[in-house]
Design goal:
With 94 residues, the protein is an alpha+beta fold. It has a domain at 55-94. Helix content is 38%, strand content 13%. It contains 1 helix and 2 strands; from the N terminus they run ββα. The chain has one helix at 58-93; strands at 3-8, 14-19. It has a two-stranded antiparallel sheet.
């Protein structure tokens, strides 16, 4: 059975997302602090690989991805609410 999980944004907006039963939430205490990071090739004195030395930890990549998703959800929510207000106003005026 699927269930809804509330996600509260910084501005107090609460969004409910549908999650699968087999998803296990990670407690905030277990999230790695940004001060702690994995060693990079640069830390070990080796040449950089990949995209021209753009080294980001997996945690940083995940954080950026979630920020992008959050921005998309926030924009969609605001747009949807604005449209609902417009529908409500047009219904009231008629």
């Amino acid at each position: 059975m699927k269930k809804l999980t509330p996600i509260e944004l910084e501005d107090g907006t609460v969004i409910y997302m549908e999650v699968k039963e087999d998803v296990e939430l990670v407690p905030e205490e277990s999230i790695v602090d940004e001060g702690e990071r994995e060693l990079t090739r640069g830390d070990l004195g080796k040449d950089e690989k990949g995209w021209g030395g753009q080294t980001r930890s997996p945690q940083e990549q995940i954080r950026q991805s979630f920020q992008a998703i959050e921005g998309t959800i926030r924009a969609y929510t605001n747009h949807t609410l604005d449209e609902e207000v417009e529908v409500w106003r047009s219904t009231v005026e008629n």
